[in-house]
Design goal:
Chain lengths: 267, 197
């Protein structure tokens, strides 16, 4: 049976892993290479590294980290943050990433998603969507039904509103050539209060490609919820692994006993 | 020398990385030249069946590849490198595969999402050399929309809306639908078994 994937996320800034709450108040969480090794040993199904550095120096540091981590990592590695062109993506893939994630650049230039898919294949392209609840829609936007709860797409690390409906944007990126969607609930991010299952289900049911739910994981029961009620194909988390001492092994044991198919790594 | 075929797409880099990690030498072949003298051939694949066969054709590699298979040169196909062995694929009905194995590669019809992305389990048939030391029920990493039928050559099956060929084996001809270079310790074991064969 196809396993539900558990994906630790390393938000990297200037050579360190950091994590905040709702994208703010960043705290140091450790060395990216060491955390990648640890999570790999514990049975991570994939790893995601997102560069949230503002500086050119920070990006160069991340590239070196990717090279270093990829040499000894034999599970899929997704890298994103600041990918704006096909050449940016090529550099990350050459450094050892298996997939690249694009976010703001895809919103600003949707054709980029198609260009990336044509250059590297859909399987290598993850479109990250940061979504924030806007309440029930007062009027129908393209692809959205009037009256249902809506989420709007945010860009630039969650600082800018686009006015776009997240579900409609998810359908669009699938058409454009995205291989997977990494869906982050800004309302839930870093709160450890649970995933936004309603958002996740709305997006997951709207597309055929896998949806990785992100934002809000605080305990193992939250993962069960997002796989069952949220129809997620994978779940990504950071704080729970960095700060709460939750190991992947015990999380997966919990999921297995609650009927979620997961990959248990021996030893 | 193990030769890894590079037809300009995909996962050649990560396959080479895994081979280097296991301590074996390998060379990249982007043309027919190296195929004649190869001790072992790996065809990694990713992307579109028609595009792959077209590119192998343009590079003049199809006949040399058939000849190498005919000589019994150990071969490991990965993902599309497995599908290439069959007669045809629904992904590009007008394009002929290598035809080394009988059958047609078909598209998943659900109920799961297509493509299948992620870790799924192996149901291993006995006696496989490629899968020696791999526990039945092990998880391996997949990313594909098309699958090969279960036949006498099938060494392991995976279920995704029905059983399909996860691994095939006939003499020195091996192929896997999953990505051993992305399947953790299990995948490394499979590559090691091939490289040591």
């Amino acid at each position: 049976m196809l396993a539900k994937r558990i994906i630790p996320c390393l938000d990297c800034q200037d050579g360190r892993v950091v994590k905040g709450v709702r994208f703010e108040g960043l705290r140091d969480a450790g060395d990216p290479g060491e955390l990648a090794d640890l999570y790999n040993r514990e049975g991570a199904d994939e790893l995601v590294m997102l560069d949230i550095s503002a500086s050119r120096q920070g990006r160069a540091t991340l590239m070196e980290t990717v090279r270093c981590v990829a040499r000894r990592l034999f599970i899929p590695l997704t890298v994103g943050g600041g990918v704006r062109t096909v050449d940016d993506a090529r550099r990350l893939l050459a450094a050892g990433a298996d997939k690249v994630s694009v976010n703001t650049a895809a919103v600003e230039s949707p054709a980029l998603v198609s260009e990336l898919a044509a250059a590297f294949g859909r399987q290598a392209i993850v479109v990250a969507i940061d979504a924030r609840r806007t309440g029930p829609l007062a009027q129908g936007r393209e692809g959205a039904e009037i009256g249902r709860t809506a989420w709007q797409v945010m860009t630039y690390g969650g600082t800018r509103e686009t006015g776009w409906d997240a579900v409609a944007w998810a359908r669009r990126v699938e058409e454009l050539g995205a291989g997977e969607i990494l869906l982050t609930s800004m309302d839930a991010d870093g709160t450890e209060a649970g995933f936004d299952c309603e958002l996740t289900a709305a997006v997951s049911r709207a597309v055929q490609i896998p949806v990785i739910a992100s934002g809000g994981a605080g305990n193992p029961a939250h993962f069960v919820e997002v796989f069952e009620r949220g129809a997620a194909d994978a779940a990504l988390a950071a704080s729970i692994f960095h700060y709460e001492g939750q190991t992947l092994g015990t999380l997966k044991q919990y999921l297995q006993t609650h009927g979620v198919p997961v990959r248990i790594v021996a030893g | 020398m193990t030769v890894v075929i590079d037809y300009g797409a995909g996962n050649v880099g990560s396959v080479l990385k895994a081979i280097a990690y296991l301590g074996y030498p390998a060379e990249i072949a982007g043309s027919a030249k190296l195929l004649a003298g190869a001790d072992k051939i790996i065809l990694p694949g990713q992307g579109h069946f028609g595009a792959m066969m077209g590119e192998l054709g343009r590079r003049g590699m199809i006949e040399p590849l058939r000849e190498a298979l005919g000589r019994g040169t150990p071969y490991l196909g990965i993902c599309l490198g497995l599908q290439a062995l069959y007669e045809s694929s629904e992904e590009a009905p007008a394009v002929a595969g290598l035809g080394w194995l009988a059958g047609t590669v078909r598209r998943f019809t659900g109920p799961g999402k297509v493509p299948q992305v992620g870790w799924n389990q192996l149901e291993i048939r006995g006696g496989s050399r490629l899968l020696e030391g791999v526990a039945n029920g092990s998880f391996v990493y997949y990313c594909h929309s098309y699958y090969a039928p279960v036949t006498a050559e099938t060494a392991a099956l995976t279920d995704y809306g029905g059983p399909y060929a996860a691994a095939v084996e006939r003499g020195a001809l091996w192929a896997v639908q999953f990505h051993p270079e992305k399947s953790g310790e299990v995948g490394l074991r499979v590559l090691q078994n091939f490289l040591a064969s």
